[in-house]
Design brief:
The chain has 25 helices and five strands. The chain has 614 residues and is an all-alpha fold.
Length: 614
Amino acid sequence: MFSSERNMTSQESRQVKLAEYAALRSEITTFLSLQVQFMSYSIALGTIIAGLSTKDPSFDLVACFPLPFLIFGLLYLDAKGRILRAAKYIYTELESTLIDPVTGLPIMRWELFIRNKRELRLILSWADKLRWVLFLAPTLVSVVLAIGWYRGYGRQPTHVPLVVFIFALESIFVVLFIGAAIRLECYDRKLCRKKPNLFRCCFLLPLTEADAFSQLRVFRHKLEEFGTLHIQMNENGVYSASASQAGDSPTGYQNAWLRDNAMIAFSRWQCGDAESAFKTLQGLTTFLKTQAKKMEAIIDRPELRHDVQQRPHVRFNAKTLKELDKGWSHAQNDALAYVVWLRLRLAASDAQFRLSQDERDLYDLFPAYFAAIRYWEDLDSGAWEEDRKVNSSSVGAVVAALLEFQKLEKSGSGHPSKPEWKHLDELISRGLQTLRQQLPFESPPNRETDAATLFLIYPLGLVGPSGAITDRGMQDWILSLVRARLVGATGIKRYIGDSYYCQDYDKWLSPQQRSGDFSDRIELRDELLQPGCEAQWCLFDPLLSVIYGQRNQLGEQIEFLNRALAQTTADGACPELYYLKNGSYVPNEHTPLAWTQANLAIAIHQLEVSLNRG
């Protein structure tokens, strides 16, 4: 919750920014006035020299004619450069921080007007170029004189060294003038194309409980303008991990993950687009059908589970829905479980999304598969695809999926005659027993606090009032541990000791290595990490906002949504994470990350629900 002190500080900051704006506008006005004076002085001095030349048209005097124009021209360009520098600060920094919280428009309306109203821009641009011609045209006099001198025509100079010096000086001034003029023109065009950093206002003017309803409307408009929450599914209904990665990117983020797609589909569903969620799940089901033989083989011969490449694959080609040739840490029970959990939930929500016969045959394999791998004690790579251990977040995801099977059976829509369905209660009980032993930790004693345990609260709802673990105290412990141990100034760490994108990560590893499979040699990558230099992720602040919204704690809900909004980049993109590069936190190359976008969309939707609920 934002205190009155925080609000007062924000108001004081606003007054300081307004004072800065007034001072910079005054500075711009001063330099505009100086530009006019420089043109006047150059014309006046040029006229004097021209007048003297008519009485005594000596070569030496006429050679000096371009000098005042060039000198004052350089001063003119200096003034223009200072104007553009002040304008850039106003446009990219001040304008974005001084937003009317009700209308969402900049308070500095003149800057907005001169960038949106283009009818005089062409005329003014040409007028500016004509002023440059005014300063440069007199140099033609020196050119004509120099040619005449070289060819022996007309008057010759009286003081040759002086004239040579004047010509050399004028040549230097001409080169400086043309170079500066081109540089400033490019700078001006770039500034006109540049969008102000509107997302700085998310930090400087945070959402408050008093004005959240009107502020949120403004923020949603800005997010739509920048396409922050736009995630484009492909023709198969699935999403690449990051839209920023080309088809041959060494990062692999142009591929699709089951987990990420399930989370995006869930976000779509929660935000009111069930059709989109259904289409994504159809794409995931199509891929999982190619993995049915792997599940059947492990059901028949459970020892095959020890070879992770024999397990159902969790990462695949987004365009072809086929396996990738590259080896991967496919022992990820949570990824499979999320798809099953969401597909069954959607089927139960509306008759139009019920399971087809082909889907029944596929999804009926999962209870037997989870039993065959003994999921409650299975060493898997978990949500972070790293070293294998018994992860609470994976066990909990499977329990949540099995509970949906149980609901399906009780509704009469399942296949209770199948042997594996008869043991659902026992399978669920074994998983819950593991969770009661391990929670609120992820994989004790080696891994205790881990942000992945948040998924058990949301979206799975396994730990909560309506979940299988109804202990409010357990939810409190998970939240407290994450906030006490993992929340950073920019984002939230996955766990203490996380070496993925540690400090200066791109210095130590090649593009192919950065997102490679370290599940068998995690200790090698861990050696790169300096204590306290873990990456800070952007996935979790939106989830905490949603969780606190469900707990009717509006202050904390707004607090974590503000953090999530502040994590967006200057062009409105949602990063995967921020990491230390040369001592400063910067977004990594997987920006935007579709999963982050999906989580932020849910958080904004949940705040709207909370505010409408009153």
